[in-house]
Design brief:
Layout: H1 7-24, H2 28-33, H3 39-47
């Protein structure tokens, strides 16, 4: 069975990856080292509409 994703799914995946590469990757080591949570970056992630993504109830 070959699985393929929709164009919409791929666009979301690309947007999340770009966010992680730009805002999380540069500070990831420091966050891990200091046991910190990236509050500012996650707030921006939410402002982009990517937190609390709604799913149909059946999922």
């Amino acid at each position: 069975m070959k699985y393929s994703t929709s164009a919409e799914h791929e666009a979301l995946r690309k947007q999340v990856r770009e966010f992680a590469e730009e805002y999380i990757k540069p500070i990831a080591f420091e966050l891990d080292l200091n046991n910190q949570f990236p509050e500012e970056q996650i707030k921006k992630f939410g402002e982009m509409g990517l937190m609390g993504i709604p799913f149909p109830k059946e999922l």
